Structure formats: C-alpha cells, structure tokens
Amino acid sequence: MKTAFGLALMIGALALTTGASAAAPLSGQKGQKVTAPAVDVSQRATYGDASLRSGFTPDPYRVDMFSGGDVDATTIASGCVGMVARAPDFQLTYSAGSLPLIFGVTSSNDTTLVINGPDGRWYCDDDSGDGTNPLMSVPDPQSGTYDVFVGAYGGNGAAAQLYITELNSQVYGDSGGNNDGRYSDATRPNSALTANFGEYYLSAGFTPDPYWLPIYSGGSIDASTVASGCVGMISEAPDFQLTYESGSLPLTFGVEADGDTTLVINGPDGQWYCDDDSGGQADPEITFRNPRAGVYDVWVGAYAGRGVSGRLFLTELGR
C-alpha cells in the first residue's frame, strides 16, 4: 500500500541522509554483486535550471517534463519511493526571503518527488498533493540549490508538470480549501489583476509561431456571468495578458489540454469573446480575422469545473 507523506515531512522528518546516496548492492548471477544505479546531482538537469528570488513572478513557475527513470528512490533515503532518473530533472537556485517555498507535480500518472536541498539532505513525498500527485512545502527555505527529481511510482513514466510557488500549497484550489488568488470569492473576472501565468508583447509577424504557454485551467468564477455563450469555470485574474501590435494577419488563440477547456477573452475593444470546442477534441479556439492592436486578457476555463494542465497557443498562421 502506498504511504502518503504530509507536508510537515519536508521540515526534516525525511531528511535522513546527506549528499548523494550510495546505492545498495544487488545480487547478480554466479555470486557476483552488481551495484544499483545511483542518482548524481552533479549532472546537468535534464529539463533545465532557473534562478528565482523570493517574490518571483509569474508564480507558480512551471516546467514541463517526463517522470521516471531507472533508479529506485528507496535506495536514496528512507521514505523515498518511485523510479527516478540519474540526473536531476530540474535544478533551482533560490534566493530565500520570508515566504515558504513549495514544490508540486501534476500528471495523469502517479508521480513522486525527491529533492536534494541546499543542506545536502534528501526530502521526499508521494501523495500529499491532489490525488496521486506529490507536494512538498518548505516553511523556512534556505537559499541555495535544490535538485529536483520527479519519480514514477509504478515505474511507468508519463508527461508531468513541475510547479514551484510561494503563494500557497494548494495551487489549484483542491479539496484542502486553501486559496492562492485563482480561487477567490469574486463573482466576476478582473482584468486589472496581474495575469496568473505571465504577460507578453507580440507584434504581427512574430516568431516562433505558434507562441506556446503552459497553463492550468479553471477557477471559482462561472464564465456565464461574463457574457451570453461563455461557459466553464475561470479565475478572477487573467491567465495570460497579451499586448499585440497588429498587422494584416489574423490572430488565433487556442488551447491544447487533456481535459475539456474553454476560452474567455476580453479584447482591446472591451468586448468579451468566448469559445468551447471550436478547436476540436474539447479544445477551444478563437480567431480574430482583423485583430486590433492593444491588450488581450485571456482566461482558460475548465468546462466541468475540474482544472487540467494544458498549453495556450497564439498563432497568425492558422492550425
């Protein structure tokens, strides 16, 4: 049976070893001993690295990756589970402040987290997040390097998204009831708020085309309160804000996600534009044939109210 580790474990209950762990020997044929593969935090992170300072924006910071590897995490430290890669999946260099530091993963498969902290200790979690997703919170984080491994519990790797936040451990407004601003008591969206997943400037003819942005859908506001024909649950703040210099090309907004998503856009003319399934496969898509220059505030809704990971794309070339 799987063991769920609470967030308090990050404080130190699982910090049982320092440095790179020596792997336990395995019995081989003809009486030989073979050494199990071990993780190596000196290797370059597979999915990149970043330097973040307390108060970073956008928050959460997200990294798309693939879970799993050939190292059994139980050989790293007591309480660690899942199969992880030898090299870190992501490396964070962090400048601490007064806020907590929280690591989490979203995936359709069962994932785990294994982190080597600036103190050289190992911290692990299995299911403290939503469903079978891991979540670890550091109440008083140290400045320094965090080497992050995203494990596959049953050994079956899958697409996953690591997120790092200082705002709240329940980033997606799950049953824990905590609030990070996406799930507020507001009844209407507010384009004056800072976008959840960033702001960008593009001019006609931009490259690369399409422009992609990892997002997470949903929120606490019923999009039907915005305008007739709008559906899904959206957040109070926009998910993305585009400042656009138009030309002669059309401008298309769309979403690709595993779940049913919607689009709600407030255009430079102050009008609301909404779509549900025009992109096919329960994906929304909105095209402005003669787009105006100005600010487009974009919300990605969850049709059934359940948020999912996905990607927002912007293109002038069409699908």
Secondary-structure blueprint of this entry?
Layout: E1 25-27, E2 33-35, E3 49-53, E4 61-66, E5 71-72, E6 83-84, E7 90-95, E8 101-107, E9 111-116, E10 122-125, E11 135-138, E12 144-152, E13 159-165, E14 199-203, E15 211-216, E16 221-222, E17 233-234, E18 240-245, E19 251-257, E20 261-266, E21 272-275, E22 285-288, E23 294-302, E24 309-315
Parallel strand pairs: 3-7, 14-18
Antiparallel strand pairs: 1-2, 4-13, 5-6, 7-12, 8-11, 8-13, 9-10, 9-12, 15-24, 16-17, 18-23, 19-22, 19-24, 20-21, 20-23
Q: Explain this structure to me?
A:
- The chain has 319 residues and is mostly beta strands.
- It is 0% helix and 38% strand.
- It has strands at residues 25-27, 33-35, 49-53, 61-66, 71-72, 83-84, 90-95, 101-107, 111-116, 122-125, 135-138, 144-152, 159-165, 199-203, 211-216, 221-222, 233-234, 240-245, 251-257, 261-266, 272-275, 285-288, 294-302, 309-315.
- It is elongated and about 60 Å long.
- Residues 1-34 and 169-181 have low confidence and may be disordered.
* Amount of beta strand: 35-45%
With helices defined by DSSP (H or I, 4 residues minimum), what is the helix count? 0
SSE series = EEEEEEEEEEEEEEEEEEEEEEEE
Gap between N and C termini, in Å?
A: 45 Å
**Radius of gyration, taken over Cα atoms and rounded to an integer in Å:** 21 Å
Quick one: how many beta strands? 24
* Widest β-sheet, arrangement of strands: 3-7-12-9-10
Helix content: under 10%
Q: Describe the sheet with the most strands.
A: 5 strands, mixed
SSE class: mainly beta
Tertiary shape: elongated
The average pLDDT score comes to 82
The low-confidence parts are 1-34, 169-181
